Amino acid sequence: MIRASSYVNSFFRHRARRNPNAQLRNLSVDGKDGVSEAEGSGSIGGERVSQDISRRNYTEMAKIVATITREKPRWEQTLVSDFPSFNFADPLFFRELVATQNNVLLSLRFFQWLCTNHDCTPDPISSNMLFEALLDAKAVRAAKMVRDIAGFIPDSASLEQYVKCLCGVGFIEEAIEVYFQLKEAGIRISIVACNSILSGCLKAGKTELLFEFYQEMIKAGTASDANTETVGCLIQAFCDSGQVARGYELLNQFLKTGLDPGNPTYNKLIAGFCQAKNYASMSEVLHTMIARNHLPTIYTYQEIINGLCKNEECLEAYRVFNDLKDRGYAPDRVMYTTMIHGLCEMGSFGEARKLWFEMMDKGMQPNAYTYNTMLHGSLKSGDFERACELYNEMCNKGYGTTTVTCNKIISELCSRGKSDEAFEVFKKMSETGIQADAITYNSLIRGFCKEGKVDERMNLLNELVAQDPQPSVSLYELLIIKSCKDGDFEAAKRLLGDMSSKGLHPNAYTYDTMLHGSLKSGDFEHVRELYNETCNKGYGTTTATCNKIISELCSRGKSDEASEMFKKMSETGIKADAITYNSLIRGFCKEGKVGKSMNLLNELVAQGLQPSASSYASLIIQLCQNGDAESAKRLWGDMVSKGIEPHANLREHLISGLCKQGRATEGMDRLMGMLENKIKPKKAAFEDLAECLIQSERFDDCLLVLYIMRKMGYVIKRDVCHSVLSRPCLK
Fold this sequence. Notes:
There is one protein chain. The protein has 41 helices and no strands. Among the domains are: 24-124, no CATH class; 647-731. By secondary structure, the chain is an all-alpha fold. The model is unreliable at 1-53 (pLDDT under 50).
């Protein structure tokens, strides 16, 4: 029935038993003249006369010393000098003092002074007397100290009382040690003391130790004296350890022996079966209870309703609640609050409000827990106005709400753009002694961020930083994002540094946000630092961020560095897109690295990506400038075949490139094509073509080009006119 003992005996028996007489000095009982009682008389009758005289003297002296120790603040410093010939270490005197003093703590103080200043320990009888007095005063810690200092073994009655007192203050292991001391001395400890140990184990949550100690009780034969308190402790232990069925089995076993533990045990089993959703067994216990003439109390039904509500059986709980009222039971405030909470959790806010007003109509004022229950229900139902009314009503009545409730109100206010009102709730929390936590600060800071209140959010952050727990990574991330959006990149950098100094590790998104902010601010050196830090920590940044960095590097004429980053993207699993390639192509073209640009273009096309018009343009222009008009023409054709419309200036660059190679006819065709498409060429294109036609001695075509040029409003240069007119004449 009960689990076997595993360590109770061994837990204590490893300690060496102390000899109570070891290290004790036998104290003499000196008379007034300094002669001991043993020496003062040669006969038994003489000893008795001497002891009676001494006792009378000690009684008078005890009264004097008791008054001194009670009224004189630092009596320890002067007591010996005030009575130099008196032997304060005499056991008879100490016993008289303990009996005379009404304050056992003053006796304890004298005991400590005696041990410290006279290098002695009172005899076992005196020690036991003080020990018992301390136990009667429930000063168990002081009694334990006296026992440890004196090293004596109290009598069995005192030890039993000591066991009860130890259990009362949670010293369960010490109580079990005393139990074994009594057992080894051949003393059978009473069931009352054993029940104290069982009850103490329950209070301390040590159910395993309880079962093992009960096994020891069985071995010692003490379990045969088990009473209803013993049974109640065992069943509660089974319920507390989640073994309600075994607790019920044990109840039935003890009921057969005539031991009925009463209502508290039945209620515990009912609550346990409700929690386990074993409603059939719960009903059995209830019927057994009634059959044993134990009428269920309102507390019994409270356990049933509470268990049903916790297991989301609120409709059944509500049926039981209403049935109770119909049968004449008067639910108390606790039961009303439990039922209101269950209905709110179920979403039946209308029924919950009915019970709220019904409870008040019956003269039961809601307490703080009831208010909090209704407040949570109002928030859950979306009735925020009602929640605010309840909150203000609570504050006016002096009820303290919870941090969780305040956090929900603050969060809701902030989501509605009412951060100032949320801040008022925050201030009221401090005034009413409700501790704000990280969630409180996070909600407020997010609210202030949403409304762009920079100073307020930073002040709150500084306040949070000074407390514990520290701000979360997500909160820092929010502030960094907001600072970057506001253009305050220095503040964002400080926040990032603050995170690192506090041992908080920014995530990939935080780094990405900072990279974007630094790029936007033009702080490219910080961009490099952040990017390298991101890579070293194994965080993968985004393609968009890498594209921005590559574009910035290319615009600064650092295409090789951009190319290295392009390679690192591939190594870290970041996929390059058309923007990546196009940025690099333009960057290489800008630095005249046409071969690298062409290789990237081919790679781009091979991956099924579309080159941009600007990439084609950059390559065509660079090829034309390099005099490679043939390659430029091929790219032009490729561009047109992909449906990409060339810009007008690109046509002009191609005309200029063709003219540089003396290909006047092709240049003339390109120009006429532009005119047919009603695209107005720039002046430079006309001039380059005219010069090429002159060099080719095609003067008629040249005059035609100049005529069109003049007609379009361009002024013809004097040297061009001179060349056209002089060449034929020279011939």
